[in-house]
Design goal:
The complex is a heterodimer of chains A (about 300) and B (about 425). Chain A is an alpha/beta fold and about 300 residues long. Chain A is about 40% helix and about 15% strand. Chain A starts with 17 loop residues before the first helix and ends with a helix. The longest helix of chain B is centred in the middle third of the chain and has 18 residues. Chain B is of the alpha/beta class and about 425 residues long. Chain B folds into two domains: about 110 residues, Roll (Urease, subunit C, domain 1); about 300 residues, TIM Barrel. The two termini of chain B are about 20 Å apart. Classes of the chains: A alpha/beta (about 300), B alpha/beta (about 425).
């Protein structure tokens, strides 16, 4: 018995049900199997044009989406705003409408402003896949984190998950909170109080300001990247002080469970939020997260494409 | 030309009148309230309007309007803004100085007055800027603007952060006895926030404007009003904290008045869900608790006035990323049915509602309208409080259609708007 996926867009995990999330993860298992073949290609998106519309620099996410698209045999159009009419002042909507006129029926968008994918979903005919919007959501990252953890721990329900760092500005945090909570995990957030919005309690996430307390008995620790480019220094005094209180080291990790899994969405600021000995640990899953990302994104395309066909 | 308004329920809160009767308008003035109408009805020169079952009140006065001209004529002009006002039942509007150029000197004031005289179908009263260019640094030509027709000063939208500058403005206007109208916002604290800081902003990942950004400035400006003795009017109160501060100040006898907009007493931050840019305004939509407290303030008189903060923006400007969209919504054509909702829900009486939309705002900026006394200028509104309507933004007379109330089913429709004895709008 398989459930239907009826969504034309994937904008965030907030609006997905636990069943839908599980379906994406299950589909990603089959996609992972495709990625292990000699010929890593299936025809699911043959004749479909997918446009990658990235308004922010990204190596990992953009490459991962592109590989996923190609493994599903899609025609891929990469759009980078610095080389385009955006610098001439064209609006987001006009840009996207032009790409749609060129035949794109799926648009993957990464944008520095929260909600930008919603604008496209409201106004366009294409399917919109959110590849990260402002401080809002980054659904594919959370799905690959869930996928990775489910493979390691064989479950999500009942796990204690601590998310460490800049929750205020993090789209990875928001998507992970929704994903882990919906699948039955307990989620805590920790960081300097300037970066931990107290309003997060409304969805039963508990805020902490002390790292040891927050990671006590944790099964999973998700370290967020400190975004140096965001000039965080109004929120805490220095990177050194941040690292001292919220950077994860081998020593501090003793408070968590012995079999704790440490994750990081990358790119890592070594020695700031994560010490190198943890990042490079043979048991580290950080690189596995990257390869799982392709399978999860293939699953997202696959399910949205079949929802479009049956609509 | 004469107009006889026959058989309506006349409500004129300024004189404490609420009775069935007739109104005779002659030569632009309220002439009398004749008991016997037969001789007027037989006279060809008298236009008779049957107002049976309808309400006849002074024309509404909106002391917070953005007309956008000069400089932003693609959003609104003085002509279209006045047409929008007339369609909403407003016979007098007071316009904010954040045009381009800013209304910070007499030439701009004169331009607005001239345009309003030649193209505007309702009375227009400009507000001058407190500081040159609304930059918060040096005082604008306040005296000359007063002579040219400005009825108040305000740096609406660009709060004066420097307390010394604000104090000087409050001292300086004493010579002209005009109020200082303050958009209360600590712009360091609000930063580049785009909505209320709270549950919704946290989940949507949008930068928040905390309630404290408003409360702090309300407290400061009340303190300065106390220090200087100048009349202070606080714009668009949106927080529970502001209501408490104004209430306390009034108890102490500080000369402070306050306004609330229909959107702040009808909507909460939740209206922003799915990034609706028509729910983006400054001050932002707040929480349910704030809405309730603003309503209490309206009920107990802490909030004196209902004003719209009519802020037109074009479709293209609003159809963008939420962060990029300008703040504000149009309000002139939705104010009557939204205010009547307060009456229907028992928050305020119909008489109070009319008073907050007529004589109280006209008193704050000291303009000679807002009552139906014999001899007063004939600015009259006839409306049907029971007519069922569905708000349709495409039918607005305003050049802009940015409203979060599109599709709302409410009661209350404007039948006639009469300015200086002329019918400028009829349904």
């Amino acid at each position: 018995m398989t459930m239907e996926f009826n969504r034309k867009h994937i904008l965030g995990l907030e609006e997905l049900t636990a069943e839908e999330i599980t379906l994406i993860l299950d589909t990603a298992e089959s996609m992972r199997e495709v990625s292990e073949r000699d010929v890593k290609k299936v025809p699911a998106l043959r004749g479909v044009t997918v446009c990658n519309l990235f308004f922010e620099p990204s190596t990992r996410t953009r490459s991962s989406f592109e590989i996923a698209e190609k493994r599903l045999s899609a025609d891929v159009l990469n759009f980078t705003p610095s080389q385009s009419s955006v610098v001439k002042g064209e609006s987001l909507l006009d840009t996207a409408r032009n790409l749609e006129s060129m035949g794109a029926s799926m648009i993957v968008i990464r944008h520095p402003m929260s909600g930008a994918p919603w604008l496209l979903a409201k106004e366009l005919k294409s399917s919109i896949i959110n590849a990260g919007d402002g401080s809002h959501e980054h659904p594919s990252q959370a799905l690959l984190d869930l996928f990775t953890i489910r493979r390691i721990k064989s479950r999500i329900e009942g796990l204690k998950v601590a998310i460490v760092g800049d929750i205020l500005h993090s789209r990875v945090a928001r998507s992970n909170i929704w994903g882990f909570m919906k699948l039955g995990a307990e989620v805590r957030v920790v960081g300097p109080a300037t970066l931990i919005p107290d309003y997060i309690r409304q969805i039963d996430v508990k805020p902490y300001y002390n790292l040891s307390e927050a990671i006590k008995d944790a099964d999973v620790i998700i370290m967020l990247r400190i975004q140096r480019e965001r000039q965080e220094f109004e929120f805490f005094p220095s990177l050194r002080e941040y690292s001292r209180f919220y950077g994860l080291t081998r020593e501090k990790l003793k408070d968590a469970r012995d079999d704790v899994t440490v994750m990081h969405p990358g790119p890592i600021n070594r020695g700031v939020e994560l010490s190198s000995d943890i990042a490079d640990d043979p048991g580290s899953v950080i690189l596995e997260q990257v390869s799982n990302g392709i399978a999860v994104r293939m699953a997202m395309f696959y399910l949205v494409a079949s929802a479009r066909r049956s609509a | 030309m004469s107009i006889l308004i026959k058989g309506g329920r006349i409500i004129d809160p300024f004189r404490g009148v609420d009775e069935k009767g007739n109104v005779l308008i002659e030569k632009g003035k309220i002439k009398s309230f004749p008991k016997d109408t037969k001789k007027f009805e037989r006279n060809d020169k008298v236009t008779v309007i049957d107002a049976k079952g309808k309400i006849v009140s002074p024309g509404f006065v909106d002391i917070h309007v953005h007309l956008r001209e000069p400089g932003y004529e693609h959003k609104e002009t003085i002509r279209t803004g006045c047409e929008s006002a007339a369609a909403g039942g407003f016979t007098s509007i007071v316009c904010m100085p954040n045009t381009n150029p800013v209304n910070d000197n007499a030439s701009v004031t004169e331009y607005i007055m001239l345009k309003a005289r030649t193209e505007g179908i309702v009375n227009v009263f400009p507000i001058g800027a407190i500081t040159k260019g609304e930059k918060g640094k040096t005082l604008s030509q306040i005296g000359e603007m007063y002579e040219a027709g400005c009825v108040a000063i305000s740096d609406d939208g660009m709060p004066v952060m420097n307390s010394k500058v604000m104090r000087n403005a409050m001292e300086y206007v004493k010579a002209f006895d005009i109020p200082v109208i303050s958009h209360c916002e600590d712009s360091n604290l609000s930063g580049n926030g785009v909505m209320h800081e709270g549950d919704t902003s946290t989940l949507l990942g949008l930068k928040g404007i905390p309630s404290a950004a408003e409360d702090i400035m309300v407290a400061r400006d009340i303190t300065l009003a106390e220090l200087t003795g100048t009349r202070l009017h606080i714009c668009h109160v949106s927080t529970a904290g502001s209501v408490r501060l104004v209430r306390d100040a009034k108890k102490r006898g500080v000369k402070v008045t306050a306004e609330a907009t229909p959107h702040h007493f009808m909507l909460t931050e939740k209206a922003v869900a799915e990034y609706d840019t028509n729910a983006k305004m400054n001050p932002p939509l707040r929480t349910q608790k704030d809405v309730e407290t603003v309503r209490e303030g309206l009920a107990d008189g802490t909030i004196d006035v209902i004003a719209t903060d009519h802020a037109p923006h074009s479709e293209d400007e609003k159809k963008v990323e939420f962060d990029r969209a300008p703040f504000g919504i149009v309000g002139l054509e939705t104010a009557l049915p939204l205010s009547l909702k307060l009456v229907e829900e028992g928050v305020i009486s119909l008489n109070d509602m009319i008073s907050k939309l007529t004589s109280v705002p006209s008193g704050i900026v000291n303009i000679d309208t807002g009552t139906l006394s014999a001899g007063a200028r004939a600015d009259v509104l006839i409306f049907d409080p029971e007519a069922r309507i569905k708000i349709d933004r495409h039918s607005f007379h305003s050049k802009s259609k940015n409203t979060p109330f599109h599709g709302w089913e409410l009661k209350g429709s404007v039948l006639y708007t009469i300015v200086n004895g002329n019918v400028v709008y009829s349904a």
